[in-house]
Amino acid sequence: MVNIIGLGYIGLPTALMMASHGIEVVGTDFNKELVGILNAGKTTFKEDGLDELFADALKAGIKFTTEYQVTDIYIVSVPTPYDKFSKKVDATYVVKAVKQILDICPKGATVVIESTVSPGTIDKYVRPVVETCGFKIGKDINLVHAPERIIPGNMIYEMLHNNRTIGADVKEVGEKIKAIYASFCQGEIVVTSIRIAEMTKVVENTFRAVNIAFANELAKICYHDDMDVYEIIRICNMHPRVNILQPGPGIGGHCISVDPWFLVGDYPSLAKVIDESMKTNDGMPDFVLNCIYEIMKKEGLIDISRVGLYGLTYKENVDDMRESPTLQMLESMERHLCGNLVKVYDPFITKNVVPNQIYDLDEFLDSVDLVVLLVGHDEIKANMDKLEGKVILDTRHICENEGVYRL
């Protein structure tokens, strides 16, 4: 049996995928409400194919509980935020989960850390906890790192088809865990050391963050001198060795917006390009706010309550708001005492999470003069005609209406 600890955006799909492919799984989470929803036969977030996968897992006998189980394999999939000041990984949740596992696990059990961590985190934080509790690593307990590699909006496909990395102290232990993931993963699964596995996951997301920062910085330069950044990118990408990404209002989610900071925190004197790239990305929400201010002056708009932000999630067609650029913009506006004035709408967010949130597209558009497109949901792409007559700031390059402002 596999006990998966943490049933969030990564832990739940992992548990469901394993259960639906013949692995006996018990999912554990401290959140009683979340566990109650799952035991009532409902999923806790929206994702293409997740409900069908959930149904398959239920048929296979998956169980959900708030209690840790006595078994020989544990997979820890809990949050790993970073300290906003030091930029170092906050391993608190991982350490707490490992301690609770050690309270009940039999000798010889394997603890798999699936949460994304900075290089050396398991050495610095997990091994000392195991040893302090009186366990000998490699004899009483085996440690493995198996970082996830999926993206909201395409989770199910990527879990099945993406390559995976397994880091272990001993190759035989790594191969044992590899076999569990191979029950569903059709991609290549590489077994390496724990520290290499830690580093590769962080480097993958750092590579993407640095490339996004280049596109964002290019957008700022082009906006300053009234050039079409998208036309420039399109032409540059015709070169066989150039592949510039698309700029946007910031980066969100719990990977690209967080993981690169781990390297900055651990290697502050070395990770200079990464540091500047992350600052560029983190500065985009404020840059968009400045664009809104300039557009309002140019268009003669004076009522900020007639400004509408379309999109609360961090990317299109998901309900994931983690590190959302829109939320970052609202935080910044709140510091200037105007965060509760703008209208906000997102078809994927049906609970009240911010002031002046509207739940109907037509009602939202009727209440605003300036629409800021922050997320490219399919809904708005299919309703561009409803934006006629509005002042539009398009941060996602999805609107071809005449007179639209773009980054």
From TrEMBL:
One of its GO terms (biological process) is polysaccharide biosynthetic process. It comes from the Bacteria. Residues 308-401 form the UDP-glucose/GDP-mannose dehydrogenase C-terminal domain. Gene3D superfamilies: Cytochrome c1, transmembrane anchor, C-terminal, NAD(P)-binding Rossmann-like Domain. Its EC number is 1.1.1.136. Coiled coil: none annotated. Keywords: NAD, Oxidoreductase. GO terms for molecular function: NAD binding; oxidoreductase activity, acting on the CH-CH group of donors, NAD or NADP as acceptor; UDP-N-acetylglucosamine 6-dehydrogenase activity. SMART domains: UDPG_MGDP_dh_C. NCBIfam families: NDP-sugDHase. Belongs to the UDP-glucose/GDP-mannose dehydrogenase family. This is UDP-N-acetyl-D-glucosamine 6-dehydrogenase.
